[in-house]
Amino acid sequence: MKLRPEGIKREESAPPNESITRHTGRKIVGITIALAVIAREFSRRAVALDPVNAQARAFLASSLSVLGQQEEARAEYAREIELNPSAPNSHGGVGLTYLLEGKFEEAATAARQDMADWARLLIVSSSRWAQKRIPESDAALAELIAKTGETAAYQVAEV
What we know:
There is one protein chain. The chain has two domains: 1-10 and 20-87, Serine Threonine Protein Phosphatase 5, Tetratricopeptide repeat, CATH 1.25.40; 89-159. The chain contains eight helices and two strands. It has helices at residues 20-49, 54-66, 70-83, 90-100, 104-111, 117-130, 134-148, 153-158, and strands at residues 2-4, 7-9. It has a two-stranded antiparallel ribbon with strand order 1-2. Helix 2 (54-66) packs parallel to helix 4 (90-100) and helix 4 packs antiparallel against helix 5.
């Protein structure tokens, strides 16, 4: 599967004399993209039905980010923050969009405003690591482990 401007298109199958590992990987990526497109469209419908639902905006922003639509994702995160300024991972989500674009300072700055320790510290640690500011990254990771290690093990593993 390939995501094209005209929609999702199927790729050819792997030739019989080739390894299927790469082919299988492409299939998994294709399925992931297809699911993200579906999530985006359902989230758009949810927002259309209830435009003041901050959680619907968060789901839409997340699916947009997964699909690489970072500017539109930031706009949705901004609307979520307007509706619920203390929503967990709202500012962290903005930070993630910058992180995915390689804008590490913007990522850390945005994430610092998040009310959820796990969201804030995940993005700050990742941003600082990408900037080769290892002591700051390690400090944020240590704080993430100390404060949320039992409830945010996935985020700890991401760093």
